[in-house]
Amino acid sequence: MVPRLIGLEECEALTAREVHDLYRRYVSRSQVSLMTTFGFGRELVDRAEGAWVHMRDGNRVLDMSGGVGVLNHGHNHPRVLAARARFAEQRRMEVHKAFFSPYLAALSHNVAELLPGDLNISYFPNSGAEANEGAIKLAYKYHEGRRQTILRADISFHGKTLGAGSLTGSAENHFRFPGLPNAVVYPYGDVAAVRAAVEATRRPDGSCDVYALMVEPFSASSMRCWSESALRELRQLCTDEEIVLIFDEVYTGWGKTGELFYFMRHEGLLPDVLVYSKSLGGGKASISGYTVREKLFRKAYDRLSDVILHSTTYYGFGEETATAVEAVNVVVEEDFPARARRVGAILGPGLERVRAAHPDAVDRVAGVGALWGVFLNGGPKLLDLAGKLVPGFAHDPRFGTKLITLSVIAHLYREHKIMTYYSPNVENPLMVAPTLMAEPADLEHFLRALDATLALGLRRLLTGFVREKVSSAW
Ligand SMILES: Cc1ncc(COP(=O)(O)O)c(C=O)c1O
Asked: Is residue 273 within 8 Å of 245, Cβ to Cβ?
């Protein structure tokens, strides 16, 4: 029998209902429920440019989610598109295993040029989790397997593969899968606790057992950050104990927070390995990376017998890497850090005004550059109501806040055609993380819409949202 396959043109002509049906049958039923909850998934996207998403039904949606860190360049940045078109037109080669890649050489050079100190040697896989695991593997190898402990924060996000997932402290990661052995948890931001963990795992001969310390200098899943003095103390501790200090800036990199990387706001501060991803691909390529201080890399891996100890099929893939070369040039030439600071100069005071206008609805706002969280709070009565409206979630103490936050997100989308999201981690802030292509007028439009939404009152938003969900046919 000839298989009945869907072709590309036919795929582009599928209706939303047909796509949902295919998802239900071949991807995941729950994913359809989740994505339609916010309202977003009910229509299909025609195209996207800059900060705007154009729907098939003719509506235009302001994307304040910034692709969860991927879209610093905005949707379909013309220079990034041109780089990819050029690569295709010139019939460049993708798989560079036997031949050297000029793209890989240039990207590694450019990253070294932009990062401080001797952060000079890079490896480019395709996801944040892979890059983190590569960094951890390198740290383990640096100590030749003689150290067994890795430290990670209680509040953290490093990815969802088995290894990175075992270092991720996030509510969404609630099932206990097997993971990296000897991962010791410390409270985020607490240097004394890190010191205590180093002491507690010290071996009988007094030597240190910790090979790596995982740190998110700014945690985009919780909107918390380490103080400058704490980061410097961590650096000193790692230097004294020869622990490989890994900064995970997968979300916060490439200008998002108002510096090229968040840690770079602190003069002279240097991790041993920096991990990044997301906007490295300019919003088009799935590419991540880690960059290592030169002497660490040379000791860990740089001998012929170890040269293929770490690799992946798509590492340094042609078009992904060429795209990243262009994306990084755009970051620098269009001064993304300055763009993020301009976004922050509007969103920071703007969100604070919204909080002040709705003190019963908004606990606090926190953030930096183009990365902000709005912490909604309906108070005990509303949380209680949320539990009654949708029973069956008593096991989740955060359910009420999540439902309230979802109702605001859904209203912003339905009534104002604005896309936001919320963090599944700790206090579940509503995330406001636009692309760096958002214009001041877009940001003011968003602030007015948030103000108008909250003016309706959280109670009304919540009950309306639940009623609509229950009556909806989706
Ligand atoms: C800080 C951080 N680290 C790691 C990751 C994992 O990246 P990926 O989903 O590409 O594996 C993420 C993803 O959001 C992240 O925000």
From this structure: yes
Residues 242, 214, single domain; the answer is yes
pLDDT at 38 over 80: no
Ligand 1 atom closest to the Cα of residue 251 is: 16
Same domain? For 378 and 463 the reply is yes
Q: Are residues 304 and 159 in the same domain?
A: yes
Pocket probe mutation, ligand 1, options 166, 250, 276, 312, max atoms within 8 Å of Cβ: 250
Residue 157 C-alpha to ligand 1 middle, in angstroms?
6
Identify each DSSP E strand in 323-451 by its residue range.
362-368, 371-376, 418-419, 421-422, 430-432
Q: 217 and 329: one domain? A: yes
Asked whether the whole model's pTM tops 0.70, one would answer yes
Task: Looking at the structure, tell me whether residues 235 and 328 fall in a common domain.
Answer: yes
Pocket of ligand 1 (CB under 6 A): 127-129, 132, 157-159, 216, 220, 248, 250-251, 277
Q: How many domains does the chain have?
A: 2
**211 plus 303 within the same structural domain:** yes
Task: Output the CA 275–ligand 1 centroid distance in Å.
Answer: 10
Q: Is residue 24 assigned to a domain?
A: no
- Section 225-229 average pLDDT: 98
d(CA 116, CA 316): 23
| Same domain membership, residue 213 and residue 116 | yes
Mean pLDDT (whole number) for 75-104: 96
The pair of structure tokens assigned to 104 is 């890989």
- Read off the pLDDT of each residue in 134-147 and give the average, rounded to a whole number: 98
Among candidate residues 333, 351, 377, the one where a domain is terminated: 333
Same domain, yes or no, for 360 and 306? no
Q: Which residue out of 158, 222, 280, 431 has the highest number of ligand 1 atoms within 8 Å of its CB and is therefore the one to mutate? A: 158
Q: Which helix (H) or strand (E) holds 88?
A: helix 78-89
Question: How many Å lie between the centroid of ligand 1 and the Cα of residue 165?
Answer: 10
Tell whether 19 is covered by a domain.
Answer: no
Q: Compute, in angstroms, the gap from residue 390 CA to the centroid of ligand 1.
A: 31
Average pLDDT over residues 138-166: 97
Q: Which atom of ligand 1 is nearest to the CA of 126?
A: 10
pLDDT in tens, 427-468: 999 999 999 999 999 999 999 999 999 999 999 999 999 988
pLDDT score at 470: 65
Does the pLDDT at position 370 exceed 90?
yes
Domain that holds residue 384: 37-69+336-473
Q: Last residue of some domain: 291, 316, 333?
A: 333
Q: Label residue 93 exposed, middle or buried (CB < 10 Å: 0-12, 13-18, 19+).
A: exposed
- Partners of 218 in beta bridges: 225
